[in-house]
Amino acid sequence: MTFEVLILGSGAALPTSFRNPSSQYINCNNRHILIDCAEGTQHQLRKHGVLFQKIEHILISHLHGDHFFGLVGLLSTMSLLGRKKKICIYCPEGLEKIIQLQLEVGHAKLDFEVIYIFHQFKEHKIVFEDKQIQIETFPLRHRIPTAGFVIREKDKEFRILGDEFKKAQLSLTAIPFFKAGKDFEDESGEKFSYLDYTLPPKKSRSYAYCSDTNYYEKIIPFIQGVTCLYHEATFLDIMKKRAKQTFHTTALEAATIAQKAEVQKLIIGHLSRYTSDKEHLEEAMSIFPNTRVAHDGMLLLI
Ligand SMILES: [Zn+2]
Description:
The chain has helices at 41-47, 71-80, 94-105, 162-167, 174-179, 220-223, 240-245, 251-260, 278-285, and strands spanning 3-9, 23-28, 31-37, 57-59, 87-91, 114-118, 125-129, 133-139, 147-153, 159-160, 184-185, 191-192, 198-199, 206-210, 228-232, 265-269, 291-293, 299-301. It is of the alpha/beta class. A seven-stranded mixed beta sheet has the order 6-5-4-3-2-1-18. Strands 7-8-9-14-15-16-17 form a seven-stranded mixed beta sheet, with helices on one face. It has a two-stranded antiparallel ribbon with strand order 10-13. Zinc ion is lined by residues 62, 64, 142, 212.
């Protein structure tokens, strides 16, 4: 099953020729999710061939402009393109008013339903789940209320060994038992162990997004052991003081969080003020070697 993250914008507040402000598109088991929607997001989606109408969930971390100024434009385009299917937006409470005002003053209206689910900001919460995935929010520490996100595959089923199953000429009613990791007993009372007819489930994957935030150890339990962590690293450690004052993080601090949370890999982003990413990478890798610096257009296979 597909689990991919496409980085649409890897920059901080100031767009540069190389980096757009924050936005990411995620396909997790054919659930299509947009995280943050800065200015330029529509162009980036177009450039990378993402179909707008596939997006079902939009997660907005907070109401600094470099994380949502592209949203009304994207929603308007979806409507112009004939969207009828509802969309769910997980966001701070003020966003609904902002979008409505922008539409009202232009006498515009959307031809589809927008369902707003407001962040609680105080606790970890599952905000969406179905059979295959779940979306979680948790509080970060920034100048204004800000949420982090985890997108997680649910536990997977045991995989049936087709040949062994056929050879044993078992009833098809055994399949749900084996898939759930349970033994099966047929009508005559004969028992069959799931271990003889299955391979263990594939590991469930997870992706965490933490932008923007101070160095904040309280998030560690929520992102513990994730397959991939995207963490902001707006500054280098030499500017640690400035990072703290502006409620941002340094590359070294992001790597420390990754190490303490025992994640598998780290992607650092939300950087605009640097022309090269070499120092960010070196700094982070000194603590957490499996680090990469995000760039626009980067496709992560989770
Ligand atoms: Zn911010």
